[in-house]
Amino acid sequence: MDTVRRVVHDVAIVGAGFGGLGMAIRLKQQGTDFVLIERGEDVGGTWWANSYPGCQCDIPSNLYSFSFARNPDWDRAYPMRDQILEYLRDCAVRFGVLPHTRLSCELLGARWVADEQRWELETSTGPLAARVLVAAPGLLSEPSTPSLPGLERFQGRAFHTAEWDHSDDLSGKRVALLGAGATAVQVVPEIQPRLRKLHLFQRTPPWVIPHMDHPVHHEMRDLYRRIPLLQRLSRGLIYALRESQAVGITRDRRWLKGQELNARLHLRRQVPDPELRRRLTPDYEIFCKRIVLSNGWYPAIQAPNVDIVSSGVSEVREHSVVDGDGVEREIDTLIFATGFKPAELPIAERIRGRDGRSLAEVWEGSPQAYLGTTVTGYPNLLFFYGPNLNLGHSSIVYMLESQIAYALDALHTMRLRGAAEFDVRPEVQAAYNEEVQERLATSVWNTGGCGSWYFDRNGKNSIQWPGFTFEYRRRTRRFDAESYRLAPAA
Ligand code: NAP
To answer: Is any atom of ligand 1 closer than 6 Å to the C-beta of 137?
Structure first.
């Protein structure tokens, strides 16, 4: 990348999901100059990318929205993907960020230019420069597809749920679907009725609790519109109830027993066959993996056109899959509901800091940051939904808004102190991460007897936040300049 004279934006934001859009809206409101780039064809982030049948958020609608843009129009208690996308598009238009947005524009590289105290970005639509870089790539944006022996020989269609192939609705098809996580649990009840055969490759059964979703009637929506306080109260109540689950996850397991009983009763009610019940009963603690909500999963997987395979896939052939016991099954389509690689985001290979090394080179598979947001050696970089910020119990939008407030205060502090550069002190980052890992060590994620995507390739939990969300809010309320090395304009 050449260092050339060009317009230097105050802020460049990468990614137009909840985090990037939220930041853009706040900057727009403040009158700060920014550019927002998004590799997708539209705003929405994960909600744009994931269009699989049944895609729905498992956090209630009244909590899953920006605090500054509550939406009285949610028509379900838990929002469907299309409505979330509509909401985010509406926010982008309503708050005037689209004129600052470049869609179908992918970040190819970003490097810190020390002499100029700015970031230089190489994108698929040309170069950009900015004083501050906000990376908001989303945590679940890099699909994970297992490398199955023989997969390259397969003659049918094969795709990941995050890249759903809508060219065929699968009617009358024989499908093998790998996975039994949050995504599979939503997809399977939607597609099973129209398939000729579904071979469900379930490696580990999930804990499933009844789904409390229901339509929000227009009388209620009218009420929310006329009396916004009502929706705020509902949001507050949902928030408080969910927050109480953090006690069980990170402090006292007895708080999780109620949900385990709920899940066991759900299984007993919906699966009469004791042998099948046994195969569907998890052998790890509830909440160790993400808990899933569904009323349709157990009925769908007991349908006569479904067989559950627990022995894994040993080989893929031109028109079939062979399971771990050597049984061959003819199929037309192979679907991977196999999750994501949150600790191996491609953007980490593309962002190069003070010493020219990429985040991926520094992290070596175990992402680390201060408050999940700033990384030593990467001045003026704010990473959204970064290391150890994911939740098992509440809305990530709440965490993102905390990060946005922190980022805005960082910009404010720079202006106030005449600083052109901030860089988190290495000892601060190290102490913070030590604390996070220490607290995670006793959490249900680390000790509940399961493997999950919360663990990176080095076996470290670099994904989960070990406490209450209000603690994170408190810690990010102001930009703690003393934790940083601030430098004036060179
Ligand atoms: P996931 O929870 O990581 O589940 C992936 C599934 O694929 C697991 O059942 C895993 O089995 C299985 N798998 C992986 N490799 C396999 C292989 N080689 N053979 C057979 N099975 C294999 O992924 P996800 O379901 O896409 O969900 C990821 C996250 O996205 C969720 O935890 C949640 O945070 C988010 N999400 C949220 C919603 C929602 O809001 N409702 C919906 C979808 C996703 P093992 O368990 O044995 O590893």
So the answer is: no
